[in-house]
Known about the structure:
The complex is a heterodimer of chains A (290) and B (168).
Chain A: H1 2-10, H2 12-29, H3 37-58, H4 63-91, H5 94-102, E1 114-124, E2 130-135, E3 148-150, E4 155-162, E5 167-174, E6 180-184, E7 193-199, E8 207-214, E9 224-227, E10 239-250, E11 253-260, E12 269-275, H6 278-289
Antiparallel strand pairs in A: 1-2, 1-12, 2-5, 3-4, 3-12, 4-5, 6-7, 6-9, 7-8, 8-11, 9-10, 10-11
Chain B: H1 2-21, H2 36-41, H3 49-66, H4 74-93, H5 111-134, H6 140-166
Helix pairs in contact in B: 1-3, 3-4, 4-5, 5-6
Amino acid sequence: MLRLLTFFSTYRNTILFLFLEAVALYLIISYPGSQRRKVGDWLMERTISYYEKKHSITEYFSLQAANEELKAENVELRQKLKFAQDQIFGMASEAEKDSISNIVVDEMPLSKDYEYITAKVIKYSTSKLYNYLVINKGSNEGVQVDMGVVSPVGVAGRIIRVSPEYSLALSALNVDFKLILKAVNQEGKEEEFNIGFFEWRGESARYAHLTYIPETVKLDTGYQVITSGSSQIFPPDYLVGKISDLGEKKDGYYDARIEFATDFNSLSNVYLIKPRNKAIIDSMEQNLRR
Amino acid sequence: MNQILSHILAFAAYVFLQVTLQEELVLFRVAIPFFFIIFLFTLPFSIPQPVTYLIAFGMGLTIDMFSDHAASGVHAFSALLAIAARGRLAEIISTTNFRNLTDISFKNQTPAWYASYLLPLIFIHHFSYFFLEAFTFQYFFFTLLKIFCSTIYTFLIGYALCYLFYSR
């Protein structure tokens, strides 16, 4: 017994060291574990409110750029709307034309398929391998896990955790962020393929990779890369970026480098996208799995 | 008592600056400063080792709470690893005669002493931190590049802080 006590007293520093390291390792390994989710959520609410205060101060410095971006998006949407109206007008019969020209933009119904929630990114990082976005809306505002996050110009991330007031999203700058993409050339959609997988490898905040493109698919630099819509997260044809470089062919496949449309170094205004029929599709999938 | 209070204030200041400025101070996406560990490395040697372990663990955990993976233990692990190495390192590099560790002071040391004291400790911390953060060897060389650049960057900030607070 005495020996045991002397052992502990001589090695007490080492024992304390090993014990604390073991606790830290446990925290690291069990991080995705559910038992600590509650503590994590509680902490998230506390620490994020600090970042929200910081954001409310630093926001003023980037207000002008964010405003310009939103204005540019507005102009583009108005042009697209006009184009769509003209298309419909051209196709309509004489009898229908009257009623169509009477539709005022403000009274137009909202999209039946997707619901958009505007939100702000209050914290983001770009320098890690696993980057996240902290968003200022949570389950109180209807945010759910697996909603897509898009900036006014392109894809930005995906919601992975929701607390009442905030939510946490996987940034597209995260090596775990996966997406199926297709490419179209600039003129239109003559060449459209479900071509490859989105992959970010951590080396740059401006570029990502498009991997496993079959050799038979001929792509060129400048082609736009858009979402395929094969997942429930993003609607189809949402811009991700454009191809800036083509890689070597290997085993019948090749890679391409994508330049992001979204500027991750000044991310502020984002939209969260939710398919309106998500609940139905989810329950269908669960039934199928059973 | 006064000294303890100033250490507590320094602890709070380091944590505040670290969580506020971390993303703003990143250089070229590879140099990420974790200057809060300078607080741990400049703790006086008169503090008993187990106490420094607890301080390092607590400080790492505090920084972890503010990181994206709230409540993960990456910083806690790395800070503790580095602080455990510091006593031995200070013994090795101190060429001047001293009876025990408590005689080592951070005042009036040469830049060369600071480099040989801080650089290995910062390297140990960064090595542990970046590999645990990545949690994979898939990005091995990129992670190594980050470790080297960040070590030098943190050292420059750390030396500047030491020069400010410990020069005569």
